[in-house]
Amino acid sequence: MFYETAKNDHGLARPPFKSCVVPRPIGWLSTVSPEGVDNLAPYSQFTNLTFDPPYVLVSINRTPAGGRKDTAANIEATGEFVYNIVPWALRDAMNVTAAPFPPEVDEFEKAGLKKAPCRLVKPCRVADSPISLECRFVQTIVLPGDSKTGTVDIIIGKVVGVHIADEVLLPDGKIDMEKIRPLARMGYSDYTSAEHVFELAPSDRAGDAPGMARLGLEGATGQVP
Q: Which of 94, 198, 200, 224 has the greatest number of beta carbons closer than 10 A?
């Protein structure tokens, strides 16, 4: 099949686009409002941008009324946010925080989640999330949509601190993703989790496999010979 996005003439019972780029990491973002209310919400249009220094990006669609989500408003107002990885064990709690609670509601409390303080930023992190990234706001890019909900705030943040639980670190220095089983979004209301990890060594066809692994795939920072 083929369809033009402007015409939206796919003829399917369910919109297919968000199932075409999967799996997508879930940006479980914690923020705090200027009034001091903690906020926590998941976003599936999330990724890392680069690693030296590390930046992350999240795309947050507007509300049906065209307003900004609490997460976007808090990030711009305070200049800080935290990414928390979603492990399999917290899937139900994550789902609770996806509900459209009003700004004065603390999603940590609604989902029964414990908070942990950060070192360099004010927002709390999810205590039972094995990986959290402390981030500072860099800029917002607004893409206009064909509808109020279609308009999106693309927010870029610089990672200034990283928390990794000791129990998910392997002796070889890698993170045990099979233990975490991080959740990812598919399309519709479907999710998946990383339950199987395999290694595929870089091809040496161009004669620089060691350098490719160190600089590109592993994301080494600084000047590496």
A: 94
Hey, which residues does 142 pair with through a beta bridge?
Answer: 153
What is the rounded distance in angstroms from the CA atom of residue 201 to the CA atom of residue 209?
8
Cα-based distances in Å from 195 to 83, 87, 168: 21, 11, 14
Indicate the pairing of strand 80-84 with strand 38-43. Answer: unpaired
End-to-end CA distance of the chain: 48
Q: How far is CA 44 from the centre of its chain?
A: 6
Sign (positive or negative) of CA dihedral 102, 90, 220, 43: negative
- Residue 108 tokens read as 């940590």
Domain residue spans of the chain: 22-194, 201-225
**Tell me, which fold does domain 22-194 have in CATH?**
Pnp Oxidase; Chain A (2.30.110)
Give the tens place of pLDDT for each residue, 116-175.
Answer: 999 999 999 999 999 999 999 999 999 999 999 999 999 999 999 999 999 999 999 999
pTM, two decimal places: 0.93
Nearest in space to 120 (alpha carbons), one of 82, 156, 88, 175: 82
